[in-house]
Structure formats: C-alpha cells, structure tokens
C-alpha cells in the first residue's frame, strides 16, 4: 500500500507550502514599500545633496583660486590710481559687441525656412541662457535647456531650435580651437615654446576630430543611425521609433543644408570668430588700462588656453579656472603679476559677472509684458532661478 512517508534514505519532496509563499510575498511588499518611500523622500534628499556639493565645490574654488588672486591684487591697489578709464570703457564696449556677435551667430545658423522671431529676441534669449550658464556647474547643459524652451516659446520648431543650438555650440568650439592653434604657431617665434602648448594642441586635436566625426556621422550615416534609434525608440516609454527616426533625419537634412549654403557658412564663421576675437580684445583693453600694451597674438594665446581649460564642466563658465590660469599665462608673456591679475579681474567683471544680471533682465523682458508690474517681474526672476537651481 503506497505511503506518503519518505522511505529511509529518501528525501521528502519539496513542497512550496504557504509559509514560503508568504515569505516571498512579504519580501516583495517590503521592496515595494521601500521603493515607494524612496520616491517620496528623494526630492528632499537629492536636491539638498546636490546643492550642498555645489556650495562645497564653490567654497573650495573661492578659497584656493579666487581669494589668493584677490589678496595678490590688493597689494597692488596703487595701480588703480593710474588706471586709464578710456581703455576700461573700450573693454566694456568690446565685451558688449562680443555678446551681440553671438546673437548674430544665432541668427545666421537658423535653419532655412525656420521661424525668425527677430534679432532682438534672439539676442535676449542668448543673454538669458548665458546667465544660467554662469551660475551652475556644467552650465552649458542648464543653459541649453532654458534656451531651448525660450526658442520654442518664440515659435521656432523644436527640431529647428535643436539644430541651431547644436550647430552654434559645435561651430563656436571649432572656431576657438582653430584661432588658438594659429595664435600658438605665431607666438612660438615671438615668445618661445611653452610646455603647455603640447597639452593644448592635443586637446584641440581631440575636440576637432570629435566634432568632425559627429558631423560626418549625422550627415553621412543618418539612415543607419535612424534605423538603430528607431528600434531603441520603440522600447522607450512615451517615445516612438518613428518619431525618433524622423528627428534624426530632419537634423541631418538641416545640417547638410547649412553646410551647402556658402553664404550662411561664411557669416557663421565671421560672427563666431568676432565673438571670440572681440572678447579677447576686451581683455587686451583691461590690461592696457593698467599701462601695459601686450602683443595681441600672445594675449590671444593666453586667452585661448584659459578658455579651453574653462570649458571643462567643473565650475560655472570656468569660474576660478580662467581667473587663475589667465594671469599665470600672461605673466609668462612678460606682464607683471599685478597688472595681469588686475587686468583679468576687471575683464571677468564684464565677461562673467555682468551677463548674470543682464541675462535676468533679458529673461524678464521676454516673459513679462510691459506694465505688468514689479510682482510679475519678481515671479519671472524666481522662475529663472528655479530652472537653474543645481
């Protein structure tokens, strides 16, 4: 007669009884509760943590990079009594002209057939984006987000705005590196070879190759890339493969059209070059205000190296990096440390700090109708700060 009891030497059959089922169920319940509680607490943990890290890094920059420069400059404040106000005014005007050329570059790279809201509004959007880029680390990402929202709010299609911003950013980077290479080649016979030139040349070559590979991949390999992205897009919630494929193909078509239009290409290179050259000329004027007329080619070499280093997403718009590196490079070209430090600090007042309130005012002018009152202006500034909050 069969028996349910196990024979000697035989293990009883595993029976997933109700106890094991309850254990698995309780484990899943615990995981779900933990995930739910983390989602509820995440806004109160992640945001203060990011803000604390940002403040800590900012304090380190101020303590070890900015304060030493200010202390060194304070020992030579007697130079302020001999400053030339005409050169200071020229430096401010040239910095404003540099920012305006960036607005002209934005206008030049608008894709053919795209909505044109007017140069004034494009310029103010660029100023507002610059203000955001100057207050958060890796500010280019945050400024791109607010710039995209403002461009699309003005009636520019999302794809046209994305193509314009990508073309402008990549093109401006390429122009800076090309100008820097030219200045290094010319400055070597004038001031000799500096070891940092090798590092800068390697970084510049990597940047140019990366940009060239990206442009070639988008324009020549758009069909293959779009098919891959279509398969990926079908697996992303809220996105379809057809939509992602169409975006890639539209971007490739717009970039190809911009590349074939020689007139647009010429104006884009002109405005991008003037944006950098006028900014460097502003620095030259601030140095000249303290009585030293530096060779423009050598000054641009120092300016270019500092700006390439400042692109690294460590601080907002190279804060602390450019401020400390530029004086050191200018000293290597023959300036005294006091003149180099005071000249760079004066230039950074209009290059870095002035665009912040100017960009906030530009944002208010875009978002607040005339006569809306102080309360509406305050709300617009609050919205801008909340979008740029680290």
Written account of the structure:
There is one protein chain. The mean pLDDT is 76. By secondary structure, the protein is mostly helical. Helix content is 77%, strand content 0%. The chain has 14 helices and no strands. It is globular and about 65 Å long. The longest helix has 57 residues, at 18-74. Helix 3 (119-133) crosses helix 13 and helix 5 packs antiparallel against helix 6 (196-220). It has helices at residues 18-74, 85-108, 119-133, 139-153, 158-191, 196-220, 222-233, 241-260, 262-288, 296-310, 321-332, 337-353, 355-367, 374-387.
Low-confidence runs of at least 5 consecutive residues? none
How many runs of DSSP E, i.e. beta strands? Answer: 0
Cα-to-Cα separation, first versus last residue:
77 Å
Helical residues, percent: over 70%
Count the helices. How many?
14
H and E order:
HHHHHHHHHHHHHH
- The shape is globular
Question: Approximately what portion of the residues adopt beta-strand conformation?
Answer: under 5%
Average pLDDT reading:
76
Structural class: mainly alpha
- Can you summarize the main beta sheet? none
| Radius of gyration, in angstroms, nearest whole number | 28 Å
Quick description:
The protein has helices at 18-74, 85-108, 119-133, 139-153, 158-191, 196-220, 222-233, 241-260, 262-288, 296-310, 321-332, 337-353, 355-367, 374-387. It is mainly α.
């Amino acid at each position: 007669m069969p028996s349910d009891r196990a024979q000697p030497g035989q293990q009883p059959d595993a029976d997933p009884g109700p106890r094991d089922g309850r254990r698995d169920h309780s484990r899943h319940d615990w995981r779900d509760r933990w995930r739910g509680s983390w989602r509820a607490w995440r806004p109160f943990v992640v945001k203060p943590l990011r803000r604390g890290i940002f403040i800590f890094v900012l304090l380190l920059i101020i303590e070890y990079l900015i304060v030493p420069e200010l202390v060194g400059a304070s020992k030579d404040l007697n130079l302020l009594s001999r400053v030339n106000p005409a050169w200071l005014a020229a430096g401010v005007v040239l910095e404003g002209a540099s920012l305006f050329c960036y607005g002209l570059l934005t206008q030049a790279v608008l894709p053919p057939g795209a909505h044109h809201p007017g140069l004034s509004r494009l310029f103010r959007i660029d100023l507002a984006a610059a203000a955001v880029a100057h207050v958060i680390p890796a500010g280019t990402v945050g400024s791109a987000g607010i710039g995209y929202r403002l461009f699309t709010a003005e009636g520019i299609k999302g794809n046209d705005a994305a193509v314009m911003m990508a073309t402008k950013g990549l093109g401006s980077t390429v122009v800076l590196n090309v100008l820097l290479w030219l200045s290094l080649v010319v400055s070597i016979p004038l001031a000799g070879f500096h070891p940092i030139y090798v590092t800068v040349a390697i970084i510049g070559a990597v940047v140019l190759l990366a940009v060239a590979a990206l442009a070639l991949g988008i324009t020549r390999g758009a069909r293959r890339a779009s098919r891959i992205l279509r398969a990926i897009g079908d697996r992303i919630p809220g996105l379809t493969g057809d939509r992602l494929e169409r975006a890639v193909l539209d971007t490739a078509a717009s970039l190809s059209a911009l590349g074939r239009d020689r007139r647009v290409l010429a104006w884009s290179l002109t405005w991008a070059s003037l944006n950098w050259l006028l900014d460097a000329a502003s620095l030259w004027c601030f140095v000249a205000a303290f009585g030293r007329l530096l060779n423009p080619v050598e000054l641009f070499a120092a300016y270019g190296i500092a700006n390439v280093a400042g692109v690294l997403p460590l601080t907002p718009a190279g804060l602390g990096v450019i401020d400390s590196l530029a004086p050191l490079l200018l000293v290597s070209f023959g300036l005294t440390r006091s003149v180099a430090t005071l000249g760079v600090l004066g230039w950074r007042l209009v290059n870095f700090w002035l665009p912040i309130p100017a960009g906030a005012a530009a944002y208010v002018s875009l978002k607040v109708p005339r006569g809306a009152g102080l309360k509406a202006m305050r709300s617009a500034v609050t919205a801008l700060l909340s979008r740029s909050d680290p």
